[in-house]
Design goal:
single chain; alpha+beta; Alpha-Beta Plaits; 4-stranded antiparallel beta sheet; 4 helices; 4 strands; elongated
Length: 104
């Protein structure tokens, strides 16, 4: 049986100017698409703010933080973030796992 992975929420905000973000946008989007293969369920802005949210799964908060640090925006100092374990109940975990395993 595969190892059960926990769910995590990354909250963050962009700290760079629009030109710096635009220069890395294609690389950033490509990185997020690769993460969607096994770690990233969703990533989205928070309304009309520089805030961002990602829902990821992993073995630990440290592992998930490393995934976020590898994002081109983070590598270039354009994204500040925090990672928090998301202790969902069994039913929600089943739905999240199913969504992740079904891909697109």
């Amino acid at each position: 049986m595969p190892e059960a992975l926990d769910w995590y929420v990354m909250t963050g905000r962009f700290t760079g100017d629009e030109h710096a973000l635009a220069a890395l946008m294609d690389e950033h989007v490509a990185y997020l698409h690769r993460l969607m293969d096994d770690s990233l369920l969703a990533a989205a802005p928070v309304g009309d703010t520089p805030g961002r949210v990602r829902i990821l799964r992993g073995r630990s908060a440290d592992e998930v933080a490393e995934l976020v640090r590898a994002d081109p925006f983070c590598r270039e100092g354009l994204l500040e973030f925090e990672v928090h374990r998301w202790p969902v109940n069994d039913r929600a975990r089943g739905r999240l796992d199913a969504a992740m395993n079904n891909g697109d």
